[in-house]
Design brief:
One of its GO terms (molecular function) is serine-type endopeptidase activity. It is found in: Secreted. Keywords: Disulfide bond, Hydrolase, Protease, Secreted, Serine protease, Signal. One of its GO terms (biological process) is proteolysis. It holds the Pfam family Trypsin. By secondary structure, the chain is an alpha+beta fold. The protein has two domains: about 110 residues, Thrombin, subunit H (Beta Barrel), CATH 2.40.10; about 110 residues, Thrombin, subunit H (Beta Barrel), CATH 2.40.10.10. The chain has five helices and 13 strands. The protein has a six-stranded antiparallel β-barrel with strand order 8-9-10-13-12-11. Strands 2-3-4-7-6-5 form a six-stranded antiparallel β-barrel. Strand 3 and strand 4 form a beta hairpin. It is globular and about 40 Å long. Bound molecules: arginine. Arginine (ARG) binds next to helix 1 and strand 12.
Length: about 270
């Protein structure tokens, strides 16, 4: 079984074991090679939370999410899988999003209950294809708290474009989860580079068209466990959702993201 941050946390919450660190270099996570950011600069960034499943220390955070509408949050499909939650998502009664709060130990911002969950039925847990889900909130966010997904063909997807990934995930690859929001600068890579890095293995298969990958030639900057479902932003638009990768921040193993244009298309077509 692939080990995920959330799974480790779930185990910790239910069986009182210490989360196991992924085998990763000392430079990982938002976020490896990252820096602290003020939530006011990323008002569309939300945390997915369940204190029942993941404990209260970090407000129950287990994944990231991003608001694309006042009542619509995108996240990764795998964040809502039983392997992560340890239960079917509808059984997780206290599933919420936390908005407007950068420091998970503080109490600013808002916690909003999730009214409806839609998980992409085409999500393939083996290849990681179609890794997105939509949460409908029980109460609207402020109008300024949304970001627009970049449509297919948008210049923001061009290889070489500078992008920023946000999250509360592992900052070292050793299970050091952030309490305050962090971000990391990465570069969009070409499909050829991504395909070469991930031709198909137990970690996943890079699928041009529905995924994108990003990183730095020398490694070091990446998302990591706990960042899943969170946004990759370029030129002020959403281009990806944190999905998977082999380790965190490793040379030759860039982070892989669900391509935002594919999500928008799927949703536009009535899901
Ligand atoms: N699957 C991970 C999670 O559940 C996110 C992995 C992202 N990894 C990476 N190297 N970019 O949080």
């Amino acid at each position: 079984m692939r080990r995920t941050f959330a799974r480790a946390l779930a185990l910790a919450a239910t069986a009182a074991v210490i989360p196991l660190a992924s085998p990763a270099p000392a430079t990982a996570g938002v976020v490896i090679g990252g820096y602290p950011v003020d939530i006011a600069e990323a008002p569309w960034m939300v945390a997915l939370s369940s204190r029942d499943r993941f404990g209260g220390t970090r407000a129950g955070q287990f994944c990231g999410g991003v608001a694309i509408g006042r009542e619509t949050v995108l996240t990764a499909a795998h964040c809502l899988g039983e392997e992560v939650l340890g239960a079917p998502p509808r059984k997780v009664r206290d599933l919420r999003i936390v908005a407007g709060r950068g420091d998970l130990r503080a109490d600013g911002g808002k916690e909003i209950a999730v009214r409806d969950i839609w998980i992409n039925p085409r999500h393939d847990a083996y290849t990681n294809a179609g890794d997105f889900a939509v949460l409908t909130l029980s109460e609207p966010l402020d109008a300024g708290s949304v970001i627009r997904p970049a449509g297919a063909g948008d210049a923001a997807y061009k290889p070489g474009t500078g992008a920023v990934v946000y999250g509360w995930g592992d900052t070292t690859g050793n299970g050091d989860y952030a309490s305050s929001l962090r971000a990391s600068h990465v570069r969009v890579l070409s499909d050829a580079v991504c395909e070469e890095a991930y031709p198909g293995s137990a970690d996943g298969t890079y699928l041009a068209g529905s995924m994108l990958c990003a990183g730095e030639t020398g490694g070091g900057r990446d998302a990591c466990q706990g960042d899943s479902g969170g946004p990759l932003v370029a030129q002020g638009r959403l281009i990806g959702l944190v999905s998977w990768g082999s380790g965190c921040g490793r040379v030759g193993s860039p982070g892989v993201y669900t391509r935002a244009s594919g999500v928008a298309t799927a949703l536009g077509a009535g899901r």
